Amino acid sequence: MKRSVSQIATMCGAKLKGGEPDQVVVGVTTDSRKSGGGELFVPLVGERFDGHDYAEQAAASGAKAMLWQKDKEIPSTLPGVSFLLVRDTLAALQRLAAAYRSELMVRVVGITGSNGKTTTKDMVAALLGTQYCVLKTEGNLNNHIGLPLTLLKMDEETEVAVIEMGMSGFGEIEELTKIAQPDAAIITNIGDAHLLHLGSREGIAKAKLEIVAGLGENGLLLYNGDEPLLAQGLQSMTIPDTTTLKTFGLQDNNEWSAQHISLEPYSSKFIALHKGVPSGLGTVQIPTPGRHNISNSLAAIAVARYFGVGPTNIEKGFSTLQLTGMRIEPSRAFNDAVILNDAYNANPTATRAAIDLVAGLEGFGRRWIVLGDMLELGPDEVALHREIGEYITGEKAEGVLTFGALSVNTAEGARQNRQEAAQTEMVHHFDDKDALAEWLRERLLPDDLVLVKGSRGMRMEQVVQALEKG
Hints:
This protein is α/β, with parallel strands linked by helices.
């Protein structure tokens, strides 16, 4: 964003005090250490911190203007800085982002869902980036702070913004979508994430469908047609006649589906179908394994075609795709065994998909599934962990290793589902990640496959790192 101080004041409803109204501000930051040169500093207030306390540091770093809450004393040591007085700096940041988005000739793609948001974001951005100037959400900056900051990173040349929207409770997606005002919205799926806050999968579907609230006129809603709760939720909503509804998924009744699926440790191949017939893209290859990732890629293809991206550029986009790390990220162990690092997050739906991926991969000596706890699952967390263990039959994976207080139930479930002693001896629970990694290192063979997965708080990537070390 490049605007004058007076323009910014108008955009977010602030009263200007001090400084120069015509001073041009370039960029926005909430980090006083990274104000760079001439940025707008936004001091946020939390339970244990107050960004206003770092105003002098922000000014020393180059900030020329600051949003400032009216109830905070303005420092007298910064006479050249413009202060934009508001009631709440976070709310003002969000108003500023919404206003800036409205001023630009930009189209926005909003993406939400229980699983696959980041992968789908990366795919959509890669395909659209072959034809447009694209900005996408960095990392997981997908909340009430990260989303407005992402929008404010757009410059006048940005043609499409691909925006990820995350949430943990009701009303949060509605807030985000009204800021981003998407022209196209994607709901990747409905899983079990956030059951602790939303109570049921029906509640999760309702929360994800809030993305419709900000959808622009003549907008596109693209949702996973394999998930009946989304279709049911849409039936209970009032959808504008100008909104286009399209489905994607692995079932044949979706507008976008797939056939001739082939999975490998480092990639997946398929034929994309549009309304049941080949779409003209030929064999699509994506640089990541898993049927669920094929579903994500179908959403990306559908949006790309909606935006006028042709088959050649779609192929080019997938061939140059760089996915955000720890989403089924392949690597090699110390002895050349294949590792699939899926340690960014976990819930029952995503974990079952990862197990199915391992079960479908052929040509390996033994398949190991290493699981950490799945967090924020609510009162049924013990049963859900046990069910995951029961799901891992001996045919799907020879070895099951678990870590965490909840995952002891996963191990118990896996043992119950294995009748032979030789199979139950391949199931172990550990209270220490280092011990788990060392136990596996001593037994891992060069032709083995290892999947590592767990919730972010479990930091299961440490197991991956231990296995990779020579």
